[in-house]
Design brief:
By secondary structure, this protein is mostly helical. The protein contains six helices and no strands. It has one domain: Tetratricopeptide repeat domain (Serine Threonine Protein Phosphatase 5, Tetratricopeptide repeat, Alpha Horseshoe), CATH 1.25.40.10.
């Protein structure tokens, strides 16, 4: 039986630009502890035009878990700006709250 990751990868062969599949793959890589590959996938997603806003938040959370707090802050700030540009006040608010919690942890 195929793993969830293998199923996602198989679907990506048919549609390599599917943003949700690419995001799902990044989440599976994170679950498997393949942080570098996961973060690379997320960076590709938020590096696109327009950026995929949820990728900023997930990357920020993952970086914080890896004690890469300065990098997490940078990604979250960029994500907040992208969310506001796209009119996604909910995502901007969630990332702002998480960013604030990192400030408290880092001080």
């Amino acid at each position: 039986m195929s793993s969830r990751r293998e199923k996602i990868e198989a679907m990506l062969v048919d549609d390599p630009q599917d943003i949700f599949l690419r995001y799902s793959l990044a989440m599976e890589l994170d679950k498997e502890g393949e942080n570098a590959a996961s973060l690379e996938q997320l960076a590709e997603l938020y590096g696109e035009s327009p950026p995929y806003v949820p990728a900023f938040f997930m990357a920020g959370q993952q970086l914080a878990r890896l004690n890469r707090v300065d990098e997490a802050r940078t990604v979250l700030r960029d994500g907040i700006e992208a969310a506001r540009t796209q009119g996604d006040s909910h995502a901007a608010g969630e990332m702002s709250e998480f960013l604030a919690s990192l400030g408290q942890l880092g001080e």
